Amino acid sequence: MSPSALTPVFVGLRTGLHVLLFGLLALVAARSLLAPEPSTPAVLGAVALFGVTYALGIVASARASAEPVARAERAASAEPVAGAERVASAEPGARDERAARFERRRLRLLWLTALTLEWMLLLWLSREAAYLVFPLFFVVLHVLGRRAGMLAVAAMTAVAVIGLGLHEGWSVAGVIGPCIGAGVAVLIGLGYAALAKEAREREALMRELLETQAHLVATEREAGTLAERARLAREIHDTVAQGLASIQMLLHAAERADPEGPGVGHIRLARETAAADLAETRRFIRELSPPDLDGADLEQALRRLGEATTAAHGLRVDVRASAHPLPMPVQTALLRIAQGALANVTQHSGARRATITLDETDAGLVFTIADDGQGFDADAASRAARPSSDSFGLVATRDRVQQLGGTLALASMAGRGTTLTVTLPREVAA
Fold it and tell me: What is the DSSP code string of 386-429?
């Protein structure tokens, strides 16, 4: 996956934060060395401890960020796992990932607690340590999140005000300064969080678009292959197969007309050869037809699809078909649409039952897939400024329907299931 366009911005912000913190830490150490006091050794020791703790946290965070990328690369380079083994290993893998996330969060909280206590020690020893609270605000907001982070920022602001008051005496500047710094840090932190969320959403959207593009390319290639196979099957059926059938009939008539003639053996051999070649040609025609439509019966193919879906996912699928036999391209397209629709039902809807209906009406051929799942607000999704990832699966279906000159309608309401309706003109189904 390519890095986000905002990655340099995030790297620059984090680098600036690190430079600011270590610069202020150096200021505390320099101030203690330029004006030596009995507490100078303790200040230098606290500065070193704080710097080491912060640096360890940076290194640990970088390693934690690199782990998912390394796991993805290992998964991509590993051989595919068999279906049963993949299912058996999915749940333990998810538990391990949750446990790893919990452990990383626990370590971050311990690191933040240690930093806070060390900063409070520095603040007790040196008033310049109060300036360190500003970069610490960003660290707290990043680790704890918005709500808990803002509470922690308020508490640290109070500690900074008290520390400055104990060192320099109470003043308005000593109160307003930390408060202004806290407000600025909160605003910048919220902006950073919003920017990061936007980057994640854009990255997810780009990933969905790329996957959809690849799916469309594969669908177009598959549709072209199936159309060409169907065309070849029709051509062979209408030319070679019909010619062999005619030859066989003529030879059979000649054999009956003169059963005792001198060349009847040759006629019989020619008829048997033509029959064998006709059977072989018909086998070629069956092989050129889509495997799911072997026998050119869409209803049977839909029933097999429903039975396979029930066995794999527990979704009951009812099939009702009353249309006359359809051309092979139309049967292939409707079967692929049903496969995609049932895949969406099993993955997203939580439905227990689905119904596939194929009828001929005055409007044309009507193909419907309905489920009793949780549904969604189709109107709200269409009004949204950015389409959701679930809507991308309909792109291939819509393109396939448009290629046949038909229309696609989607009706859904939250909690009331979803109905996908494909309407094809009568001349297409003829």
Answer: S--GGGGHHHHHHHHHHHTT-EEEEEE-TTS-EEEEEEE-HHHH
Those residues with Cβ within 8 angstroms of residue 234's Cβ, 6 or more apart along the chain or in another chain: 328
Residue 298: exposure state from Cβ atoms within 10 A (0-12, 13-18, ≥19): buried
The residues spanned by each domain of the chain are: 7-170, 217-291, 298-429
- How many CB atoms are located within 10 Å of the residue 22 CB? 15
For residue 283, the model assigns a pLDDT of 72
> CA dist 332 to 223, 232, 309, Å?
9, 15, 18
Element (H, E) at 195: helix 172-236
pTM listed for this prediction: 0.43
Region of 145 please: left (phi>0), alpha (psi -120 to 50) or beta. Answer: left
Please give the Cα distance from 376 to 396 (Å, whole number): 20
Going by C-alpha positions, the residue among 295, 293, 301 that lies closest to residue 317 is: 301
Question: Is residue 153 within 8 Å of 198, Cβ to Cβ?
Answer: no
Q: Six-digit token pair at 336?
A: 């692929």
What CATH topology corresponds to 298-429? Heat Shock Protein 90 (3.30.565)
DSSP H/E element including 350 = none
The string of DSSP letters for 297-335 reads -HHHHHHHHHHHHHHHH--EEEEEE-PPP--HHHHHHHH
Dihedral sign for Cα 32, 59, 138, 191, please: positive
CA distance 361 to 348: 31
**What burial letters (b/e) apply to 368-405, b meaning 16+ CB within 10 Å?**
bbbbbbbbbeeeeeeeeeeeeeebbbbbbbeebbeebe
pLDDT tens digits for 336-383?
Answer: 888 888 888 887 788 899 999 999 888 789 999 999 988 876 665 555
pLDDT for 234: 66
Cβ distance 159 to 195 under 8 Å?
A: no
pLDDT along the chain (430 residues), means of 10: 56 80 87 84 89 86 63 48 43 66 84 89 86 84 82 86 81 80 79 78 84 79 75 72 77 80 80 79 68 65 87 88 78 84 82 91 88 76 46 68 87 85 83
**Which strand (E) or helix (H) includes residue 356?**
strand 353-361
Q: Is the dihedral of CA 330, 336, 338, 340 positive or negative?
A: negative
CA atoms of 271 and 247, how far apart (whole Å)? 8
